[in-house]
Design brief:
heterodimer; A: about 325 residues; alpha/beta; 2 domains; 6-stranded parallel beta sheet; 6-stranded mixed beta sheet; 12 strands; B: about 350 residues; mainly alpha; ABC transporter involved in vitamin B12 uptake, BtuC; two-stranded antiparallel ribbon; two-stranded antiparallel sheet; 16 helices; 4 strands; sugar transport (chain B)
């Protein structure tokens, strides 16, 4: 019995392999030389709605462009990503797209890809600077730019605030690149614009609604909301948690205190439409089409920049309602 | 163990028990004093807004309710010389099941639906707990291994339930009352946690169950030979732990109106173990202190607020926690106290209490 099952699984796997190869051949045969690339994509995992939307976007864009995408979900483990990249090298794909789980430990496998002559493109996250020569380009969000967009809106909105702008900040996970850069970019612009501001408090909410709400409750009991002008939350989960805390304290979010969030999920925009927050800076997971463009130019041997920022927008209250239906996560 | 502890109990009455609680309580009072010094008496005095008690300390208690539930279950498990690492994942599963079931329905406010969602979540988490207990008691798998499996796989199960998304329940659904509501102005999470504490305390202190638990933790084989059905008790204890974690997940999810399979109750198992240890229950099994665990939970909750109130940056969070736990652990060690007090020691006093303490520590 066991033997039969094993044989069945083996045969199934073989068959699956055959069809996969067959599909690849068809693509090459039918599409000419620069059409129908075979792209290996080693994704981080499916740890958040943002990530799920990101995977879906890349898969859809590859199909639309007529490329074959070999998609591997690494379940947030570097080991799995490394073996996925090795598989891609063995399969002689045209290009490898990697969204590295962590920044370090990539030298060997990236070197192997280079030796095999396969270009590597990083998506979303980066690797340590020492390995910079081993990939062609990185396509990802410019977190500092996101912070600057939030800062520009704040500087403009509170330019006439005579008694100084009092700010609460909910940071992302301590030490993470998005938290560091979103903070730095934000205050860089406030300083540059010469806004008279005071950081009343700034704590980590760890990018989760749970901690965002808990920290906001403590902010409220410690500082009260009287005289607080602005809450800057590094992502929308924390912002949405904070909005609940503000409501439960009997205040009106978006009116008694203005709120900026970064990310722009459906839930975030819905809160915006409900008037509970004032400004949304987008962190865009739907960069599939842009990624395909980059991959195509890399394979064609065009010169590309070392870093390609993802196209991202920012939305104020007048745009929330129109933008809500376009949200993909 | 049982024979050793009985005379100690008889001799000291409630005294050794209170002595156990003294040091954690002292640390908690110190933390509260620090907060009052920084933010004034508003910290401890409750205020009423929207017919619900508020104020910094009441908020701390309300937010600590899920951790308290998990920690109470953990205390019982640890009393049997076990450990349950899966509580964080079970928390996420309980939250995911209830929220997903509610958002799948057309009318999210139907009382029957809320009741069914809560019941289903509790049944599933109870079964998961019982499964953990069965693996430990009947298959002889070490508790840390048996529960590690679900600690790792459990969040995957929660993700399957939610389809990788974060289900958001409408704010109007009565389900959210479980986390945000109030009964006679007392926040519902506090009421639930207090009831569970009372129930477990009565069950373990007013019936023989507590003694049986301590006996199983002290020496399972001897307990079996003495006629205690230790396997059944072990399964029961893990089941209760799973239920507590599921209930904590429901409260957490109701508070936010959503269930995050990845982050809901993340690392709560470690905080729970910490609270149990701060409360004076030894990881070696045997004697356990539900009230001590409660104090441990409040210490952890207060500590997080203290860091913000004192104005320390986020980077300090873990370090400050470590320092406080360190202090509590040292204060609880009779050896450390003896060593510190040595220069001040008056001759007749110390030898007498020391042996009693040591018996307790084992």
């Amino acid at each position: 019995m066991l033997k039969q099952v094993l044989a069945g699984i083996g045969a199934g796997a073989l068959l699956f392999g055959l069809t996969a190869c067959g599909g690849g051949d068809d693509g090459d045969g039918g599409g000419g030389s620069d059409e129908g690339l075979v792209i290996g994509f080693a994704q981080v995992g499916a740890e958040s709605a943002w990530r799920t939307a990101n995977s879906a976007s890349v898969q859809a864009a590859a199909e639309a462009a007529g490329h074959e995408l070999k998609f591997v979900d690494a379940q947030q483990e570097q080991e799995k990503q490394i073996s996925a990249v090795r598989d891609f090298i063995t399969q002689q794909v045209d290009a490898i797209v990697l969204a590295p789980v962590v920044e370090t430990g990539w030298t060997d496998v990236l070197q192997e890809a280079e030796d095999a002559g396969i270009p590597v493109i990083l998506a979303d996250r980066g690797v340590e600077a020492a390995d910079e020569d081993l990939y062609v380009t990185r396509l990802g969000s410019d977190f500092a730019e996101e912070g600057r967009k939030a800062g520009a809106w704040a500087a403009e909105t509170f330019a006439d605030d005579a008694d100084g702008t009092r700010i609460l900040e909910l940071q992302g996970t301590t030490g993470s690149a998005p938290a560091n850069d979103r903070k730095a970019g934000f205050f860089e612009v406030l300083d540059a614009e010469g806004l008279d501001y005071e950081i009343v408090d700034s704590q980590s909410g760890n990018f989760t609604a749970e901690e965002g709400k808990a920290v906001m409750e403590t902010f409220i009991t410690t500082h009260t909301l009287d005289g607080i002008d602005l809450l800057y939350a590094h992502n929308d989960e924390m912002g949405l948690g904070a909005i609940q805390a503000i409501e439960e304290a009997g205040k009106v979010p978006g009116v008694d205190i203005q709120i900026i969030i970064v990310d722009g999920s459906k839930a975030g925009f819905q809160a915006g439409v409900d008037g509970k927050l004032n400004y949304i800076v987008e962190c865009n997971p739907a960069f599939g089409d842009q990624l395909m463009d980059v991959v195509e130019s890399v394979v064609n041997g065009d010169e590309v920049e070392k870093f390609t920022p993802v196209e991202e927008g920012a939305f104020d209250a007048s745009q929330f309602e129109a933008e809500l239906p376009n949200r993909e996560f | 163990m049982t024979s050793a502890s009985t005379p100690a109990k008889a001799r000291g009455g409630a005294n050794p028990y209170l002595k156990r609680l003294m040091w954690p309580l002292a640390v908690l009072v110190a933390l509260i004093v620090v907060n009052i010094a920084v933010t004034g008496f508003d910290f401890i005095v409750p205020s009423v807004n929207d017919d619900r008690l508020g104020g910094a300390f009441v908020n701390i208690l309300r937010r600590s309710a899920p951790l308290l539930l998990v920690s109470l279950g953990m205390t019982l498990v640890i009393a049997t010389k076990g450990i349950d690492l899966s509580v964080g994942a079970v928390y996420a599963i309980g939250a995911a099941i209830a929220c997903q079931m509610i958002i799948d329905a057309e009318n999210q406010s139907a009382p029957g639906l809320i009741f069914a969602a809560v019941a289903l979540a509790l049944v599933v988490t109870g079964v998961i707990g019982a499964w953990n207990g069965t693996m430990v008691a009947y298959f002889g798998i070490q508790p840390i291994v048996a529960t590690l499996i679900l600690m790792i796989a459990g969040r995957g199960i929660a993700q399957l339930v939610t389809g990788g998304q974060i289900p958001k329940v409408q704010d109007s659904s009565p389900f959210t009352e479980l986390g945000r509501g109030a009964i006679l102005t007392v926040p519902v999470p506090i009421v639930i946690a207090a009831l569970v504490l009372l129930l477990l305390a009565l069950l373990t202190r007013r019936t023989a169950l507590g003694m049986l638990l301590e006996s199983v933790g002290g020496n399972p084989e001897a307990s079996r030979l003495a006629g205690i059905r230790s396997k059944g008790i072990t399964v029961l204890v893990y089941l209760v732990c799973g239920l507590c974690a599921g209930l904590a997940g429901l409260i957490g999810a109701a508070n936010l109106g959503s269930a995050d399979a990845n982050n809901g109750g993340l690392w709560i198992e470690l905080d729970a173990i910490l609270a149990v240890v701060i409360g004076g229950t030894a990881l070696l099994g045997g004697r356990f202190f539900l009230l001590g665990t409660t104090i441990g939970v409040v210490i952890i909750g207060t500590l997080e607020d203290t860091i913000i109130n004192v104005g320390l940056s986020s980077q300090w969070q873990f370090t400050a926690k470590a320092i406080v736990v360190f202090v509590v652990a040292l204060l609880q060690s009779p050896e450390f106290r003896a060593w510190i007090l040595k220069p001040f020691k008056r001759k007749p006093e110390t030898p007498a209490p020391a042996p009693a303490e040591e018996v307790l520590a084992k």
